[in-house]
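Late entry, evening session. Most of the bench is empty. Finally got around to the prediction I had been postponing all week. Sequence below, unchanged from the version circulated by S.P.
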Amino acid sequence: MLRPFLTVLAVAAAVQVAACGDDSQRAATTRPSTATSPATTPTRTTGATTPQGGIDTLAGASTRPVHVPATNEQTALLTDVRAARHEGFDRLVFQFRNVLPGYDVRYVARPVRQDGSGRSVPIAGSSVVRIRMESALDADLSQASAPLTYSGPQRFTPGTPELAELARAGSFEGVLTWVAGLRDPVDFRVTTLAGPPRLVVDFRNH
């Protein structure tokens, strides 16, 4: 009677040891998976959000018109027009000798008409933004010979992602107008800078 009883005890002990071994194996298999998951997730997320992540490089931009009435007593004299690509946007800059003018920046339909003459102004691109500045000129009418204050090109291709072409569209009765031909109807943002006075229009690029 004693031998069968001891045999039963031995079998029960073996079953219990085997069961504990199974739980330890499951824990050993599961634990590395749980530990490595947090390490791999940030790496994957960081890679997806580099370089810009969720940051908007052109906060406040839209396709709505931007209009700021003129408050300058002096006529703003244009000295430079330039454009360059930045990370997330193309920047168009109008630089002035003395003061900032009032401005109206908006999308317009073709044909674009020249101020005063009404002649059509051809411009490359699928969409057109008109930049109208007042009171502003690109020549100093206070001088006898009315010398030009801006002697750069009146039409040029910046070579940036969104700006297909820039063109002067007139200077008439204190209103200076340029147009920007865009490859896409993208959002834009208008800001100003000082030292020297500058009107800045940023166009979202890809």
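Two things to note before I forget:
The chain is about 25% helix and 35% strand.
Helices lie at 2-49.
Will write this up properly tomorrow.
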